[in-house]
Every structure is written in structure tokens, then in C-alpha cells.
């Protein structure tokens, strides 16, 4: 199973918000098979912004963190097709264009699940299901992915 990651998962792993979210994110990322995880490049751009604005890290420190995530997981680029799908998704389901773009990229790249705390848990679009990894009990797809 291919799993996509939203920005908040990596941001929490970097220490944004509370320690329990950081611990949960790090444990989750370690439990997932690295070769089955995709990170949209859009997510890395958003993470850079979060690290430099919210976390007050220098641009160099944020860049170093981004490169570490690129080394850890496969990345996938934004395509014109994904952008067009994101426009349609945002219009039809009232998602922000940026969330819609991440979901579109995940779907375009065959992700069965997109881990995100920011989107509607359980929402499925083009075969990709949004799963909030912080909810209990865990979604069956998440349980399957980390088994």
C-alpha cells in the first residue's frame, strides 16, 4: 500500500505543536515501510514555510530538514493534470486549493491513503482515502499499513 503524507504529519515530527503529536508522528513514520511512503513536493514547500515562520528556524535549518525528508521518502511532483483535478476537487468539495492539490497528487501517484489531520477523515477521492492518524481507534487502512 502506498501512503501519502500531508504537511502536518511532517511538521509535528519536526516539533510543531505538542510533544504527544511529535511522538505519535515519529512513531507512525518509523512504523510505515519507507518504500511505500510518498511526499508531494507541495508538502515540502508548506513544511519549509511552517519551519521558518511558526518554528522560527533559519532558512538553512529548514532547508536541511526538507532535504532529510527527501532522503527518507520518495517525493512526487505537481503536474498540470493534478492541478486541474485539484481545482475541480476544491470546487466540488469546498477544500482549500492547497489541500485539494495534495490529495490530487496523492491520488495521481496511486496512494491508497493520505495521512492528514487537516482534511475530512474517511473522505475518499479517486481511490485515495484521507485518514487522520491521531484518531482512536485507528482507521483500518492505517492499521493495515503499519502491520
Question: Would you kindly provide a written description of the structure presented here, covering whatever features stand out?
Answer:
This protein is an alpha/beta fold and 147 residues long. The protein has a single domain (3-146), classed as 3-Layer(aba) Sandwich (Rossmann fold). Helix content is 54%, strand content 13%. A six-stranded mixed beta sheet has the order 3-2-1-4-6-5, sandwiched between helices. The mean pLDDT is 96.
What would you say about this model in short?
With 147 residues, the protein is of the alpha/beta class.
Roughly how much helix do the residues carry, as a percent range? 40-55%
Q: Low-confidence spans: pLDDT under 50, at least 5 residues?
A: none
Any idea what the CATH superfamily is called? 5'-nuclease
- Within the CATH hierarchy, at the fold level, what is the topology? Rossmann fold
Which properties best describe this structure?
six-stranded mixed sheet; 54% helix; Rossmann fold; 6 strands; alpha/beta; 147 residues
Outline the secondary-structure elements.
Elements lengths: L2 E3 L1 H7 L5 H13 L5 E4 H13 L5 H14 L1 E3 L3 H14 L3 H12 L4 E3 L8 E2 L2 E4 L8 H7 L1
Parallel strand pairs: 1-2, 1-4, 2-3, 4-6
Antiparallel strand pairs: 5-6
Helix pairs in contact: 1-2, 1-3, 3-4, 5-6
Amino acid at each position: 500500500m502506498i501512503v501519502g503524507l500531508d504537511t502536518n504529519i511532517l511538521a509535528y515530527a519536526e516539533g510543531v505543536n505538542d510533544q504527544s503529536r511529535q511522538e505519535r508522528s515519529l512513531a507512525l513514520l518509523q512504523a510505515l515501510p519507507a518504500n511505500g511512503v510518498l511526499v508531494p513536493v507541495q508538502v515540502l514547500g508548506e513544511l519549509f514555510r511552517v519551519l521558518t515562520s511558526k518554528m522560527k528556524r533559519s532558512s538553512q535549518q529548514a532547508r536541511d530538514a526538507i532535504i532529510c525528508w527527501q532522503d527518507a521518502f520518495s517525493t512526487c511532483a505537481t503536474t498540470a493534470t493534478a492541478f486541474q483535478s485539484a481545482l475541480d476537487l476544491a470546487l466540488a468539495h469546498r477544500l482549500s486549493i492547497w489541500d485539494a492539490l495534495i490529495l490530487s497528487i496523492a491520488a495521481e501517484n496511486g496512494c491508497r491513503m493520505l495521512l492528514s489531520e487537516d482534511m475530512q477523515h474517511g473522505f475518499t477521492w479517486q481511490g485515495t482515502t484521507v485518514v487522520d492518524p491521531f484518531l482512536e481507534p485507528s482507521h483500518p487502512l492505517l492499521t493495515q499499513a503499519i502491520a
